[in-house]
Here is the input.
Amino acid sequence: MKITIFIVTLLVILMPIGWFAASDSEMLHLTPIIDEVSPLYMGVIPFIQADKLREQTQPVGDYLAYRIGRPVRLITVPDYESLARLLELGKIHIAWFSHASLEKLRRNRDWQVVCRPVQYNSVLYNGQIIVRDDSPYQSVHDLRGRRFAYVDRFSGSGFYFPNLLFAAEGIRPLEFFSNVEFSQSHRSSLLGVMEGRYDAAAVFSSELVSEGSKGLRVIARTGPIPNDPLVVRSDMGSELKSQIEKAMLTMHEDEKGIACLKSLKVLRGTTKYVAESEVQALLKKSTSPDQPAADR
Here is the structure.
């Protein structure tokens, strides 16, 4: 009995020696793995060409990575519905929505707006109804029986707020216009009007649009719309959420942040980011009692 116990004990001791004497390739599997800091994924839809999109969004990701000490990877998502789904599943951690898409897709989801950009000295902007400069149209009522272009159903300035404007004017778009199309981008709508494929279109007002708007004219403007929000899930760790919020809201006070904003100012007119409470207070103040407010 004692001899049996001795043999079993000896085998237990010698087995690992044979294991570790295996080939080098097998030994690699036994090397302890040290976890790297996991990256945060920032989701955005391709509202402009891919190279320009990265040029406009990557600086924010790089700056956040610098401030919070974690890699931030940019993920391009085909549409806002996919963006919402990935945020809900935790596949992305930070997401840029349009104001209208956020309100339509948020529903009962536990999301939190971290900040919004100040662009061209404002956190609010307006949608515009544009026509060719050489056209006879002077108001939206002159567009009866004409061809009209929206951007997409989740665009604030390219669909949602223009429809509020039309409703206030007693216009039912599907009955009023001879043809309604979704161009899928503001620039496509601009080009469509310039090339004569559309008689009018709903687009957003900014220097980005103005760059290519020679030969176009604005015949109507929507009420104020908040700039695009940066969103996280509310159940994100409080420390990480606080780090992201602090980094974004103090970007204009930090040397690297100022360098980041310098390029963003040229590209999108962005000079800083402000808290959601400040935006909502300004929106409430700027909306008259008889004007439809942004869908909060």
Notes: The CA atoms of residues 103 and 295 lie 7 Å apart. Confidence is low (pLDDT under 50) at residues 10-35, 290-296. The radius of gyration is 27 Å.
